[in-house]
Amino acid sequence: MGYINLLELKLLLNISLVVLLVNGHGTQTEAQPEFLAPLDNLTVTQGRDVSFTCVVNNLGQYRVAWIKSDSKAILAIHTHMVALNPRLSVTHNGHNTWKLHISHVQLNDSGSYMCQVNTDPMRHQSGNLDVVVPPDILNENEPNTLEGGVANEGGNVQLVCQATGVPEPAVQWRRENGKDIVVRTEGREKQVVKFVEGERLVLNQVQRTDMGGYLCIASNGVPPSVSKRFDVQVNFPPNVKAGNQLVAAPVESHVLLQCIVEAFPTPLNGWHKHDGMKLYEGEKYTISEEKLNAYTWQLNLTVKNLHKGDFGPYICSSINALGKSDARIRLQELHLPPKPTTTPTPYVPSTVKQPRRKQHYGTHGKGHEAGKGANTFNRDTYIINHIQENDYLGSLIVHEGNGHGLVGMNGATMGTGNGLGGPGGTNGGGLEKPRNTQMPAPIPSRQPHWILNNKSRAMDIFSHRRTVAFVSCCLLMIYSLLMLLTFT
C-alpha cells in the first residue's frame, strides 16, 4: 500500500514538471511589454497640479510601478499606492494607460520619475519634473525703518530688497510716478537714471527732491512679478517764501496773502502781525494751508473787510525740530478814485444812415459794350471827374432812344430815354441830383476830380454837364443836316 502511494506521488511530480516546462516554453513565445510613448518632462508652478502618463502595450501578467528616481522610493504598483503621501494618486484607463497624479505641487516634488515594468530584465522610462516658484520679497530686515529710509539733507540712505524664487529672481529699483533716480558719487557727480539693478539701492548726499516712494520689483519669468514700496524721507529745516512781498487793496475789501513753506518733518505753521499778535480763524481772518507734495505747503490768510488798522506788515512763520523760518508781507492801502455823485448820460454818436448803393447797368447794344468796366456815376460818392469841354465835344457818341446812353471818354454812360438823360438815363429829362451825405475819402484817378461838399456846388456841376450835353446834341443835329443836304 505504501509502495503504491509512492508511485502515485512520483507520477504526480512528473506531471507537474511537464506542465511547468510547457508553461515556461509558452511564456518565452509571448510578446513582451513595450512603451508606446516616452515620459514627458514637465515644468509646473508651485501649488498647481501635474500628472505623468505612461502607455504600455502587451503588459500581460506583468505590472507597472512608479518610482521616484533620486530617492529610489516606490510610489505605487499598478493602482495600489505604496507611498504615504495624500497628494499622490494613480489611475488606469483599463487598457494600456497609467497616470501618476501629483496635486498641489511643492518644491521638494522636483526630480526624476520612473515608469517601470517588472520584466527580466526590467524595462523603464523616466521623465523630469521642474517646480518653479514665483518671486517673493522677504520681510526680514525691513529697510523701511528709521535707520534705513530716513536721513538729514546731505546724508546717505541705503535700501535693501531681498527676493526669493525659483529660478532666482532679478531685482530692479524704480521711483513712483516715473520720476528719475539721482545717483550721486563722492565726487559730487550725479547720474540721472530711470532704474537701478540689484538688491541694494544707495542714495548719497540726498536732497529734498529725492523724497518719495521707491519700488523694489522682483521677477524671474514666473508670473506674477512682485514689488514693494520703500519710503525715503529727508529731514531739513523750514524755508518760507512770500508769494508777494507787497500787496495793495482798498478799504472795505477782502485780500488774500500767501506763503510757500518747504520743511520736513511736518512743521507747525502760523500767521502773525508785525506787533507779534498771533492770528486765528474767525470773522476777521480765514486761515488755511494746502499740502502740495511731501515737503511743501501753501499757507493762505484772507483778511476781510479791510480798514485803516489792518494795513501794515504780516508775518507767516514755520517751525519744526530742525529750525524756524518766516517771511514778511506788507499790506498797504490802495487809493481808488472817488465815485461820481451823478451818473452822466453816455454819449451816443449819431450815425448817418448810409443810402443803399444803386447800381446802374447800361442797356444791351454797343452802348453797353462800350461802357463795360467804366467808372459810372454813383449816388453814394460825390466824386465827379473833371472833363474838358473839348473831351465832351469830340468824344460823345449818340445812340438812338429806347434806353441807350451816351458813353464818354471817361466811361460814364448817360441814358437817353425820350431825350437826353443823366447818368443812368432813368428819366431822360435831366441829371438825377445826388444826396447830400458825408464825404468819403477821395478815390485816385488819372484825371482831376472835384469833391462836392454842398448842394449848390453839385447843382452847378450838373447844370454844366446838362448844358454841354445839349450843345453836343445840337452840333450833331447840324452835322446830320449838312450830310443830308450834301447827298441830296
TrEMBL record:
Pfam families to which the protein is assigned, alphabetical: I-set (PF07679), Ig_3 (PF13927)
Record's compositionally biased regions (Basic residues): 354-365
Signal peptide as annotated in the record: 1-31
The keyword Glycoprotein is annotated on this UniProt entry: yes
Residue span of region Disordered: 336-374
Pro residues bias spans: 337-347
Superkingdom as given in the UniProt entry: Eukaryota
An example Gene Ontology CC term for this record: plasma membrane
Compartments it resides in: Cell membrane
InterPro entries: Ig-like_dom, Ig-like_dom_sf, Ig-like_fold, Ig_I-set, Ig_sub, Ig_sub2, Neural/epithelial_adhesion
The keyword Transit peptide is annotated on this UniProt entry: no
Location, primary (coarse class): membrane
Annotated keywords: Cell membrane, Disulfide bond, Glycoprotein, Immunoglobulin domain, Membrane, Repeat, Signal, Transmembrane, Transmembrane helix
Residues covered by the Ig-like domain: 33-130, 135-227, 238-332
Stretches that traverse the bilayer: 467-487
Protein name: Ig-like domain-containing protein
Species classification: Eukaryota, Metazoa, Ecdysozoa, Arthropoda, Hexapoda
